[in-house]
Structure formats: structure tokens, C-alpha cells
Amino acid sequence: MSAEILINIAPRETRAALLEGGVLQEVFVERASRRGLVGNVYKGRITRVLPGMQAAFVELGLARTAFLHVNDIVSEGAQFDAQHVAAAGTSGGPSGLPSAVRDEVVDIRRLVNQGDDIVVQVVKDPMGAKGARLTTFISLPSRYLVFMPRGRGIGISAKIEDEAERQRLRDTMQQIVGDTHPGGYIVRTAAEGIDEKLLANDLEYLERLWRHVRERSLRAAVGELVHEDLPLALRVLRDELGRGVERVLVDDEPELARLQQFVRDFTPAHAPRLEWHAGPRPIFDLHGVEEEINRALERKVSLKSGGYLVIDQTESMTTIDVNTGGFVGHRNLEDTIFRTNLEAAVAIARQLRLRNLGGIIIIDFIDMVDEAHREQVLAALRQSLAGDHAQTQVAPISPLGLVEMTRKRTRESLEHLLCENCPTCEGRGSIRSVETVCQDIFREILRQARQFDSRELLVLAHQDVVECLLGDESPVLAELESDIGRPIRLQAEALYEVDRYDVVLA
Fold first, then answer.
1. Angle ∠(229,234,235) on CA atoms, nearest 5
2. Is residue 506 pLDDT above 90, yes or no?
């Protein structure tokens, strides 16, 4: 399927959109105030070792201390097997590297101590209340390769499926690397079909980069950034340009010039694909991306059939509920449910990429009686997820009719990146009703009247609450005035939220 990339440049924000067949699939956002940290290499210091968790906290000079697990700490002789990493489908750089595989359990206190200085790489951005996740197994990606200084062997991306091409790339890399070359290499998906010279150029670039990182880490102070990954626009070109992308539209001339130079240096054959968007309409508006982003921040996702999804993202997991809505079908109930679930499976796979939802995901498809229908829906979900660059695992349908799956999470979701908790409900997703607030006010009036003497009580509240007190709740208010023996005055406050009120002595 043909694809194109749109790059929108603003003074303090860069956005990139990946469209496949004209449909938005992924959105990348990078702001100057909070650039992603994945791939960055830091000089850190161990601030605390937790033997019970087999982990340590590392100070990097960030807002929160970062987390380092024992399996991500280099020990004497520990190495990654490049073939194992590539077979796991994790050829995209540091965010895709699994924990090291050890022959035996190693006590973290044998590897690090409080106060130790350590060179680490970020594999997961800070998310919510959690600090960044780190590794000491540094990996450096280029256009076609990932170099692992502590690795060994040559791995080929699992997404290169042609066996003859896999063997050609392995043989070519073996000739370039030789038998005594240190480190391990993964050949990335973008390398499919390229010649030996381009691979050799990439390898030489990565060797120079590693020497620079190693030398700078020796001189760096604690908390200093040793190596920073490419900015968003260059990263998107590096990672996505070889995946069937036919055109890259950029709405900023200086940025276009920088991207063109990058492409000329690494993939000159792709240079003609970069174009300047000079039209009067904003690039994201012209292609409907802005509207799609706004829809991706809503809970409800409408399906073409009339059905819909409800997506709820929590700290521990994401739940997706499938509903028939207005879809009544043309044959029978089972057929209606089956068709809705099939459409939902495709829509869910797209929403996971678009919203960048990760971690544990629970999908509640509409209950199906026919076992064959269940299998077809599950197969449709897995097939739709095949194009997802993030690693996914889908379990069979549970006895309760739920589908449990995981999607590798390395950066914040679109909602967490673009939104913040509602100041009224503080992220709960709901506020106390007007009736509930009225009852709270009655209790507070009694509390104040019993504790303090006053001529009258003044209630400050939202306009809707005041109207309810003067309307449906007026008999209760009159009875309360009689019980406490003093008048109660009401005053609407324009700046109060519905669930905010004050009872003041007057």
C-alpha cells in the first residue's frame, strides 16, 4: 500500500503524520519543551539499590529518577545475540531491545552500588508518575543498521520475509564485518534490496558515532547528555522512508533543506520524494489530519456500519468496548454481530497505532455464538495488526469473550501527550451531580450552624446549584432555615464549577 509522510513545522513543535492509502495511521509529536528521551545516552549516578526488586534508581538530572533493572545491566562478558534480538522483531533501535538473557540469576548488588557513576541509554520515556526506563546495553541505529557494542553476530529484521534476501544480507554483512569485528549488528527492514556499499557506509558511520559516544562519556559529568537521538523529522525519515513511502511533504523551506541534505547523505535515491508544501491551507488541514487527531482524543469511535467503539485509557490498561449501535443488519442477529466485530477488529488496530496505546489492552467484542465467527474476528485483528511497527501479542478469546493483548509501549500516548487532567473532575471523568452537591450543602449548613453563632448563612455555589436550591430543593431549604433559626441566603458564583461551594457565616 502506498504511503506518504506529512511534516508540519511550528516554532516550538514538530508534527509528522504517516498516511497509508490516504488514511492517517500514525501521528508523531515533538515539542521543544518536552522532547522524547528514547535513544538518548546519559552519564548517570546510582542513587538507590533495591535488592528486593532487583533494580536501581539512577539520577540523570531529569524531573524523576530513572529505573534500571538487573537484566538491563552489563555484567562481565554479557552480550546480546543480534540474531535473537532481530528474531523477536525488535530491530528499531534501543526502544526495541529486550532485557539481556542470563544463564543464572545475578544479585544486582554484585553489579552496581549506591554512588556508582554509570553510562545508560533510555529505552522508555517517563510516563505518568513513572521515571524513564534505562539499559546499559547501548544500541545505536542508523538508516539500515543497529549497532550493539555489547552484542555479537548479525541479525536480520524479522520483517524481511524473503529467505533469499535474508541470506544475501547476512552474507554481505559478514563480508563487511569479518570475523574479528567487535559488537553485533541488526540489519533493519529498510535495508531490503540495498547494495553492499550503502551497508558499509552505514557501518562506518556507526563506528565513528560509537567512538564519539565512548570518548564523551569518559569526560561527561553526572547528569550530562552524552548522545542525543535525531530530532523528530529526521527520525521519521530514517525509520519510515523505506517502507513504501512515495512522497514526503514538508511545510517549512529551511526544514526541507535540512531533510534533503540528510537524505542525500544516507539514501540519495529517495531525494526526489521530498517536496515543499507551499499552498495557502495548512498541510494537516488539507489532508484531513487535524480532524482525525481531534477525533482520536475522543472516547467514542464511530464505525461505518453504525456501530461504535468506546476506548478508555487508564494507568494500568486500556479497555475497548464494541457496540452494534444503530447497525441492525439484513439477515439475523448473529450475522449483525459478526459483521460489526469484523469491522471493529480493523478499526481497533488502526486506533491503537493512531492513539499510540500500549501496555495491556482488553477488547470486549460483542458475544458470538458461532466458534468459526470468533476465529475469523481474531484472525482479522491479528492481520490488521501485522502492519503495526510496535510489537504486539494477541491471546485467544477468553471464556468470558474478552480478547487480551499487549502492545509495546515506548512513548506517551497521543492523549497523554496532548491533554491534561480536567481541573474540574481531576481526571476522574465525572463530577458530582447538582442534586449531590445540594445534599452536601445541607449537611455543611447544619455543621456550621451547630458550631458557630451568626446572624445568617451565605451559600456560594454554581448557578445550576442555586437554581436547584430555589426550585426542587426549596422545601428542604425552608425547613432547614426553620430548624437552625436563622436565614440562609444564596449567591451564584460565575467562576465556580458545579461541584464547588462555600458556606460562609454572615
1. 55
2. no
